[in-house]
Amino acid sequence: MEMKTTKYSKQREAIKTFLDGNHGHPTADEVYAAIRRQFPNISLGTVYRNLNQLAENGEIRKMSYVSGPDHFDYNTSQHYHFICRDCGRVYDMPVETMELIDNAIREHAPGEVDSHDLVFYGNCTDCLKRHKDADMQQ
């Protein structure tokens, strides 16, 4: 994916820096809340515009397949995600991409595959523990 060049923006750089240090796949609202500390006059619209521009340029990944609002990921390499059905948190899966799956998809795709998103759904450890604790109290 070819990256477009865009005019330098302190706000856009601050957004990229925040995303680089945040592996929780924040929403635009979460990015906005964090960036407002550094740029009190920034608007939510400016944050949305910058996030969409960064995603279009291939500098970040926009995750629209998550239920609810879009989430953003600084890691643009091919990797897998786990989404908790209970709390909605998005986790990176620290496993190598599975070459067997990638090759099978390429072989059967009706065209050329240049990227993919593979998402696993379930309940995260924190939510499982919370449910177990709640069940024990009943």
Quick structural summary:
The protein has 138 residues and is of the alpha+beta class. The chain is built from 5 helices and 5 strands.
Can you characterise this structure?
- With 138 residues, the protein is an alpha+beta fold.
- The chain is 42% helix and 14% strand.
- It is built from 5 helices and 5 strands; from the N terminus they run αααββββαβα.
- The protein has helices at residues 10-20, 28-38, 44-56, 99-108, 125-137; strands at residues 61-63, 71-73, 80-84, 90-93, 118-122.
- The strands form 2 sheets. The chain has a 3-stranded mixed β-sheet, with no helix packed on it. A two-stranded antiparallel ribbon has the order 1-2.
- Strand 1 (61-63) and strand 2 (71-73) form a beta hairpin.
- Helix 1 packs across helix 3 (44-56).
- The longest helix is centred in the middle third of the chain and has 13 residues, at 44-56.
- The mean pLDDT is 87.
Write the layout of secondary structure elements.
Elements: H1 10-20, H2 28-38, H3 44-56, E1 61-63, E2 71-73, E3 80-84, E4 90-93, H4 99-108, E5 118-122, H5 125-137
Parallel strand pairs: 3-5
Antiparallel strand pairs: 1-2, 3-4
Mean pLDDT: 87
Number of strands: 5
- In percent terms, what proportion of residues is strand? 5-15%
Strand arrangement within the widest β-sheet reads 4-3-5
The helix/strand order is HHHEEEEHEH
Q: How far apart are the termini?
A: 53 Å
Q: What kind of sheet is the major sheet?
A: 3 strands, mixed
Uncertain residue segments: none
Question: Count of helices?
Answer: 5
C-alpha geometry: flat
- Report the radius of gyration as a whole number of Å: 18 Å
Please state the structural category: alpha+beta
Helical percent range? 40-55%
